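Reopening: structure tokens for the adenosine-5'-diphosphate complex, inputs below.
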Amino acid sequence: MESKRPNILVTGTPGTGKTTLCELLAQTYQLNYVHVGTVIKENRFVAFNEELQCDELDEDALLDHLEVIMNQGGNVVEHHESDLFPLRWFSLVVVLRADNTVLYDRLQQRGYPLAKIQENCSAEICRLSADMAKENYPEGVVLEMSNDSLEQLQANCRQIGAWMEAHHQ
Ligand code: ADP
Ligand code: MN
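Re-run output (same inputs, fresh job):
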């Protein structure tokens, strides 16, 4: 039986370049791109919490939906958090990192309000995404990558391609 292609999770603070890298990876290596935020929205995987009076992610529904897709292998998955998914789904977890002034400019260009820019920049300084991934996944699975420039974007794409070749022939 042909072995399944690996699933790769791409995580990181908003603005670090997840979508850009995922699209490049999908195109270069014929992977299926899954943007978890879009999956949640399109399938309305939110449930109203009466007690807290707010919308809450319906985690079970999301995970059931994704399980079928992950079982097929060959997915590159974008999400800003990494503690939501079963560990067995991913053979590689990429954490994108960006220099703080670079990130600030990208979020400003995106039209984020100042408070949201500052919140994300301090999350990046505090390594929230990187530490979340490293706390959850075994050593060797998590790869942290600087993604400040187009040169680094290309290098990251190549490095992930090389990883796939080495690990899943
Ligand atoms: P995320 O999905 O993590 O929020 P995006 O992929 O949407 O990030 O990228 C945020 C912005 O930064 C976009 O304007 C994108 O074009 C730019 N960008 C992403 N990666 C790079 C890179 N390596 N070099 C330069 N600009 C980048
Ligand atoms: Mn994105």
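The mean pLDDT is 96. The longest strand covers residues 92-97. Marking as resolved unless the reporter disagrees.
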